[in-house]
Design a protein that fits this description.
85 residues; mainly alpha; 0% strand
Length: 85
């Protein structure tokens, strides 16, 4: 896991400045590079959220006792706010 993290960081340290320099060389500026990267980052984030909250979930044996499914979180939120204990 740490090897992937290190490799991804090294790859980003190489690609990021090249992308930024390329966008500036094309005359688009740094803002468009940041907007493009934000769009690229949103794709996997949305995919993970959809898989986590809308996908089929089996019972997790490692889940702590009393943990709630995402569908039960919102109705119990107001109860938790009213009773902080």
């Amino acid at each position: 896991m740490m090897a992937r993290w290190t490799a991804a960081g090294s790859l980003d340290n190489l690609i990021g400045p090249l992308l930024l320099a390329g966008m500036i060389a094309l005359g688009w500026g740094w803002r468009w590079a940041f907007i493009g990267l934000a769009g690229l980052v949103l794709c996997p984030v949305i995919g993970v959220l959809l898989a986590r909250f809308l996908g089929e979930q089996d019972e997790d044996p490692d889940a702590p006792a009393g943990s709630l499914s995402p569908k039960e979180l919102l109705p119990n939120l107001w109860q938790a706010v009213r009773h902080p204990g």
